[in-house]
Design brief:
Structural class: alpha+beta
Shape: globular
InterPro entries: Cyclic_Pdiesterase (IPR009097), RNA_CPDase (IPR004175)
Largest sheet: 4 strands, antiparallel
Organism: Bosea spartocytisi
Distance between the termini: 70 Å
Number of strands: 8
GO molecular function, one term: 2',3'-cyclic-nucleotide 3'-phosphodiesterase activity
Keywords: Hydrolase
CATH architecture of the domain at 22-98 and 122-150 and 171-194: Alpha-Beta Complex
CATH class of the domain at 22-98 and 122-150 and 171-194: Alpha Beta
Number of helices: 4
Protein name: 2'-5' RNA ligase
Strand order of the largest sheet: 2-1-7-8
CATH topology of the domain at 22-98 and 122-150 and 171-194: Cyclic Phosphodiesterase, Chain: A
Length: 198
């Protein structure tokens, strides 16, 4: 076999090998079963109404991100321990979360996220984000700040819309979780922490 043929074969093999996708780590609010089912119903209804190609995220994937690990690499064991310790120091009462608007978050993506969000009704999530960020920095985290725009992603599609009101989706938030997310796999819950007066 000629050197050029060998090179071509190796190049083809390299293209066919998919590197494992990096896991993402984030603190989040997880809806109760009733709210998760309502989110899935909303995603399916909007998908049909706007004739979108994207699939609903599905039961088990709906969440509201509070704080995301901002580095391009995965956290090491010490950084994960710091995240657990910071979460354990957070002191906040449980609260009612209410999402009553649908909007698209582009974030430079080819397929924007179709999300449910809110205005004053997501203040509790904003405060929990601030508390987590504060405790992480007290614990020694020096990375860049993780922005917070509380929302629940329904699906991804080549579609954009101005925000519009919908039937509210809400639940009583009693705790928050640290999640490890790998694309196309179920979430791995690394820890859950209760809120006070839940």
């Amino acid at each position: 076999m000629s050197p050029s043929a060998i090179f071509s074969k190796e190049a083809t093999m390299e293209r066919s090998v998919r590197l494992p996708e990096r896991a993402h780590y984030f603190f989040a609010l997880l809806p109760n079963p009733i709210a998760a089912a309502a989110a899935d119903h909303m995603a399916c209804a909007l998908r049909n109404w706007f004739d979108l190609s994207g699939n609903p995220r599905g039961i088990g994937k709906y969440h509201v991100t509070l704080w995301g690990w901002p580095e391009r690499r995965e956290p090491d064991s010490q950084e994960l321990a710091l995240m657990h310790c910071a979460a354990g120091r957070v002191r906040q009462d449980g609260f009612k979360l209410r999402l009553d608007e649908v909007a698209t978050f582009a974030q430079g993506s080819e397929k924007p996220a179709l999300v449910m969000t809110g205005q004053d009704s997501v203040i509790g999530a904003d405060r929990l984000h601030d508390a987590l960020d504060r405790e992480l920095r007290v614990g020694g985290f020096r990375g860049r700040r993780s922005p917070c725009h509380p929302h629940l992603t329904l699906l991804y599609a080549r579609f954009r819309t101005k925000a519009f009101r919908v039937r509210p989706l809400g639940w009583r938030v009693a705790d928050f979780a640290l999640i490890r997310s790998v694309p196309h796999q179920p979430y791995e819950i690394l820890g859950r922490w209760p809120l006070a007066n839940r």
